[in-house]
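Example is below:
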Amino acid sequence: MPITDLSVSAAHAARTSGTTLVDVRSTPEFDPGHPAGAVNVPLLQPDEDTGVMLPNPDFIRVMQANFPPDTPLALSCQTGGRSSRAARMLEAFGFTNVSNVTGGWAAWQQAGLPTEQGEGYQDLLDRCQSGTGAMGQ
């Protein structure tokens, strides 16, 4: 199934009807504020020593461990660039129901859609490493 683009309003509606909203921004971007109900799987993460943004080597592994390939996924980032790249990567790894949220977090806030704060990535990473994610059950 080809990757589709969703507006933030359509992504919000899809999330409330069962689509998983995956925010691919880095954890320092996600933790202070993100779409309500979103999970965080960063495509890029800052290097601990330099702060330079580097590819997250666990991105595909965490996604595969926590979400079956047919899970409806809507990917979001700050404005839509990283999420578009992440969506293409997931499609290449066999995910079949992936959408890109155009406008990302910036458009989500501008539309006044529900937001929240808090951490999210470590739990998914831990499940992946322990083998208790969706694919490891």
The chain has six helices and nine strands. The first strand starts at residue 4 and ends at 6.
